Amino acid sequence: MTYLIQVDVAIDIITSQQDSSYRTQAYMKTVPKIRTAVTQISFASLQLMELLPVGVCFLQHNGIVSFWNSCLEEWTNISREEILGKNIFSYFSHLNFQDYIEQLNQTLQAGKVTVFSPHVYPNFFHCLTKSLRFRSLQVTATPIITTENIGFDALLCVQDMTNSLDICHQYLVDQKLQPNFDITDCLQIEENLRQANSELRRLVNLDGLTEIANRRCFDAVINLEWQRLQREKMPLSLILCDLDYFKSYNDCYGHPAGDECLRQVAQAIARTCKRPADLVARYGGEEFAILLPNTPLEGAVNFAQQIQQQIANLCIPHNNSSVSNYVTLSMGIASIVPVPDYSPAYLIKNADISLYAAKNQGRNTYSYVAPLG
Question: Which of 55, 90, 131, 305 is positioned for an S-S bond with 72, CB 3.0–4.6 A?
Answer without folding.
Answer: 55
